[in-house]
Amino acid sequence: MSTVLIVHGGRFGQSEKIANQMRKVLEGAGHSCDFVPLTKTTTPDPARHQAFLLVTSVRYGYFDKNAYRLIENNRAWLEQVPAQVVTVSLTARKPEKRDPQVHSYTKKFLEKSGWKGRVEVVAGALEYPRYSLFDRLAIQLIMRITNGPTDPSVTIEYTDWEQVDKAAAAFAAEL
Questions:
Q1: Beta bridge partners of 87
Q2: How far is Cα 77 from Cα 100, in angstroms, rounded to an integer?
Q3: Which of 22, 59, 148, 156 could form a disulfide with 168 if both were Cys (CB 3.0 to 4.6 A apart)?
Q4: CATH number of the domain at 3-124+159-174, out of 3.40.50.360, 1.10.10.570, 3.40.50.300, 3.40.50.790?
Q5: Residue 32 CA from chain centroid, whole number
Q6: Confidence class of residue 96 from pLDDT cuts 50, 70 and 90?
Q7: Where are the beta strands (DSSP E) in the chain?
Q8: Residue limits of CATH 3.40.50.360 in the chain
């Protein structure tokens, strides 16, 4: 079985939660996993890792620059091993936005990063009470534009856990 490097990047914890669920599925399929946060120094160990999974969120339409750095610095290795990126985005609360070819932020990420592996787009969580005033106002504006909830007391988990489990199982089967 393979050792998978699982990297999670996000601001409020939903990406980590999704990555952890995927880890459980991968481990249930017999694979071992190293579970680490996305930082500017995150890097795989090609002698140890036979596969790669990046679960990272989109924030205001942008991916963490460390995701780009990780891919660019490890491109040769990533093109030789099974690899998957999972985009976590509130816009994916609408099922039609879960297609990587439709999800505009993921499309831009794929073009800019040159990513060649598997791609999945998963809905995140809306947690107004956890946000700073700036984040809450910015997200409320985005939600108003996209016909989403704007009540500042609302917490909604949009993540489709069945989709997460299926994506992880498909990735495990590829390994």
A1: 56, 121
A2: 23
A3: 22
A4: 3.40.50.360
A5: 19
A6: very high
A7: 3-9, 32-37, 51-59, 62-63, 83-89, 118-123, 125-127, 155-157
A8: 3-124+159-174
pTM for the complete prediction?
A: 0.94
List, for residues 26-85, the tens digit of each pLDDT value: 999 999 999 999 999 999 999 999 999 999 999 888 999 999 999 999 999 999 999 999
User: CA-CA distances (angstroms) from residue 60 to 63, 139, 172?
Assistant: 9, 8, 31
Q: Is 6 exposed, middle or buried (0-12, 13-18, 19+ CB in 10 A)?
A: buried
Closest-CA residue to 171 (of 22, 49, 7): 22
User: How does pLDDT run across 98-126, given as a tens digit for each residue?
Assistant: 999 999 999 999 999 999 899 999 999 99
Tokens of 44: 């795989």
